[in-house]
Design goal:
This protein is α+β, with helices and mostly antiparallel strands. The chain has helices spanning about 1-30, 30-50, 70-80, 85-90, 95-105, 145-180, 190-220, 230-240, 245-250, 270-285, 335-340, 345-355; strands at about 55-60, 65-70, 110-115, 120-130, 135-145, 230, 255-260, 265, 295-300, 305-310, 360-365, 370-380. The chain starts with a helix and ends in a 7-residue tail after the last strand. Bound molecules: adenosine-5'-diphosphate and magnesium ion (MG).
Length: about 375
């Protein structure tokens, strides 16, 4: 914001100087009145061209509060039209006060406000005085910070959610410690039972911290695309082997089918392993009661990617939840997820790994008919990253 404002001001000062020079040289040849009338016009045309090149809404106002120049972004945001009073099209008292403040001689003024319609937007505005062709103007620079505000809010929510998730098992641990030290001091049976619950709570905290660290590590590297060659079929086999104890407990099998023509992909093996682990773990945890699960590896329709899908015949997921499943800590059923050892971060991790791999996730599910999670990873190309 400040950098842009500095650039605009430098450009405007240069233009104003040019316009003034132009006025001076013209003054020698033509009557002074005509030169005075032409100078600001010539400056304003060039200023409009500069404003047009700026990504943020910017308006130049004259002493009477009329719009002297504006860019397309400003016209869209504020309805500003050259020659019209700015206050008539954009009635934001804080901004108008800042403009007046600068008109009255202030070196700069700022205003922050939100626009409720058509969608809520947060704007940060800065106003500074500029002189063009000997006349004084106010330059108002409007920066749409909606996306920044949203990210900030998400960050705050995330910290609150993560703290809450950790506090629950911690509270339970403290409670049991107190009981073992107090009322249950001489009861070895109860103590044994409590220690088992405490172990489960400690494991839950560990899973949560592991997932949080994993998420932050992936996010840090999200802009770096992995370059290695990886084999999804081998990865699926390794994950199913490792999941065998859980599959046995659930009394189901995981059947892997690798279609002909499924090619290696461009990716980091350990992260692709994490994707398969999360999807297979979810299928066993939430869809296992429906019977065996299926893992399919196959080429995408256009051949540019290899897909890995995990299908279960479980209870499925209602339509309204599907777009939100990859949000951090989003669960369809909080209690069920916790009871089955979930952290609510698995699919968020999947999404971030896919971003890094330029891949994508498709979720198909219908209540009562099971779920199918499919990831598409670009096929391996030497030097793709
Ligand atoms: N195969 C599935 N069948 C039904 N629901 C699922 C399935 N996979 C994921 N879900 C739902 O999506 C939610 C988020 O999944 P995930 O991010 O892996 O978190 P977690 O498994 O730790 O709860 C789960 O809590 C569950 O409600
Ligand atoms: Mg999960």
């Amino acid at each position: 914001m400040t950098l842009w404002l500095a650039l605009v001001l430098i450009a405007l000062v240069a233009l104003a100087a040019g316009a003034a020079g132009y006025a001076l040289s013209r003054r020698r040849a033509s009557p002074p009145a005509a030169a005075a009338a032409q100078a600001p016009q010539a400056g304003l045309a060039e200023i409009t061209a500069v404003l047009q090149a700026l990504p943020h809404a910017t308006v130049l106002l004259d002493e009477t509060g009329r719009v002297a120049a504006k860019n397309a972004a400003a016209a869209e945001l504020t309805g500003a039209a050259v020659g019209k009073p700015f206050a008539a099209s954009f009635r934001v008292p804080d901004l108008l006060a800042a403009i007046e403040h600068v008109r009255d001689g202030a070196e700069s003024a700022e205003a922050a406000f939100t626009l409720p319609v058509p969608v809520e937007r947060s704007i940060e505005a800065r106003v500074a005085p500029v002189e063009v062709g000997g006349r004084r103007y106010q330059l108002a620079f409007l920066h749409d910070i909606t996306a920044m505000v949203r990210v900030e809010r998400m960050r705050a929510d995330f910290v609150a959610n993560a703290s809450h998730e950790l506090r629950t098992p911690l509270t339970s641990l403290s409670g049991f410690i107190e009981t073992i030290l107090g009322p249950a001091r001489d009861d070895p049976d109860a103590t044994g039972r409590f220690l088992e619950i405490m172990q489960a709570q400690a494991q839950r905290m560990r899973r949560l911290i592991d997932d949080l660290l994993s998420l932050s590590r992936i996010e840090l590297n999200e802009h770096v695309r992995p370059a290695a060659k990886a084999d999804l079929a081998g990865i699926a086999r390794d994950v199913v082997d490792a999941a065998q104890p859980a599959l046995n407990r659930a009394g189901i099998k995981a059947v892997i089918d690798v279609a002909e023509g499924a090619r290696p992909v461009t990716g980091a093996r350990d992260e692709l392993l994490q994707i398969a682990q999360n999807l297979i773990d979810n299928a066993v945890k939430y869809g296992g009661e429906g019977g065996d699960i299926e893992v399919n590896i196959f080429p995408s329709a256009d051949g540019a990617a290899t897909a890995l899908s995990v299908s279960d015949k479980g209870p499925g997921i209602a339509r309204e939840h599907i777009p939100r499943l990859t949000e951090r800590f989003y669960r369809v059923d909080d209690a069920m997820s916790r009871e089955r050892g979930g952290t609510g971060l698995g699919l968020a991790i999947v999404k971030h790994i896919l971003n890094r791999h330029r891949g994508r996730l498709e979720i198909e599910s219908e209540p009562g008919r099971g779920s199918k999670f499919t990831v598409f990873i670009p096929v391996w190309q030497p030097g793709a990253a």
